[in-house]
Amino acid sequence: MKNILFVGLLIAIALTACSEVSADIRGQWQLISYGAPSEQKPAASGVETIIKFNDKQMNGNVGCNGFGGEYTIKGDALEFGPVMSTMMFCEGPVGEQEMGTLAVLQEKTSFAIDGNTLTITSADGNSVIVLERK
Fold this sequence. Notes:
This protein has helices spanning about 1-20, 90-105, and strands at about 25-35, 40, 50-55, 55-60, 65-75, 75-80, 85, 110-115, 115-120, 130-134. The model is unreliable at about 5-20 (pLDDT under 50). The chain starts with a helix and ends with a strand. The protein is globular. The chain is an alpha+beta fold and about 130 residues long.
């Protein structure tokens, strides 16, 4: 009887440990789309739109300005520290894409990885960015 209880306890501990493992977002991701969940806009064509996630740092360019900052992951929550960016004026679709993307990379967000697709949703759920692993 003690062996059965011990095995059951080990299984419960293993399942709990597995549920707390965060998905690995490290690497380079290319912006595919951004905007409201029901009205995604495709990334501007002809523009390098990359976000790189390292161990605790992220950086990239999704328009005409470079940006970077720190992040942490807890479960499906992705929390960003202050994001710093260069301050060049960007207009048209590139400027809109940059503002829409950087607006999502603020404070606490949620994220999901499905194959090679990373979806980050703003805290209020009104904005989403969709990225593809490069």
